[in-house]
Design brief:
Elements lengths: L7 H14 L4 H17 L3 H21 L2 H20 L5 H4 L3 H5 L20
Helix pairs in contact: 1-2, 2-3, 2-4, 3-4
Amino acid sequence: VHLLSGRCATALRIMDDISRRFKPNCKMCVDHLQVFLVVHHSSPSDAGNSYLATLLKKGEAVIKTDASASERRQWGQLKSVAQRMRTNLSFLRLHDVLVEWKAKTLSVMKTWPNYDAGAKYLCEE
């Protein structure tokens, strides 16, 4: 719900808490990475780069064990965006980081302007 309504910082806090309490599944890993990519795109930081590496490492282990073809495809697309983000964030715009199908087709963010990286377009929640 928070992702769909553009409240990505709230969604990220909730997902961080859940991932500390429970073993993540493939869907959680895909959603967690999608939310983080939007938050980091809006307000990039060195700490975010480190966090991204951790998310990718943990998620990769889960995806390898029991992901569906769709989850593997989405993970691959998200991972590609994450790698582009790590090398040159300035070329990515908001709509480039909306990869997961709910983010791309159902979220309010699909109608937002195609913000540049670092534009701080997410409201403080």
